[in-house]
Design brief:
five-stranded antiparallel sheet; three-stranded antiparallel sheet; 19% helix; 103 residues; alpha+beta
Length: 103
């Protein structure tokens, strides 16, 4: 059984999550496993569009509809598909800076 290679348009990516030993690239329709580290993948993406929000997650900021505090410094990001992704307190400041610079 061989590998199946597909091309995913960057604008279709909702978020990318670590799924050891792979990363899972999530779109509205599917998630696709890829053999690369989250860091090396995020280094290739536009930093004005993709940002690290957790040690194991990078999101497409254009897919975020809203965010809500969890009252412990973390936030829940609501994506355009209705999925929720955690924004860790360690990444909240850089997320807010990018969000306000793109508005």
């Amino acid at each position: 059984m061989g590998r199946n290679y597909i091309t995913i348009p960057v604008e279709d990516i909702l978020f990318i999550a670590a799924s050891a030993p792979y990363i899972a690239i999530h779109t509205a329709e599917n998630s696709h496993l890829h053999t690369e580290t989250l860091k090396s993948m995020s280094d290739k993406l536009d930093p004005q569009q993709f940002i690290r929000v957790h040690k194991s997650t990078v999101i497409n900021i254009n897919k975020v509809v809203s965010y809500k505090s969890r009252l412990n410094g973390d936030y829940d990001l609501l994506l355009s598909t209705g999925e929720t992704v955690r924004l860790s307190r360690n990444y909240a400041q850089s997320y807010k800076q990018l969000l306000h610079s793109t508005q």
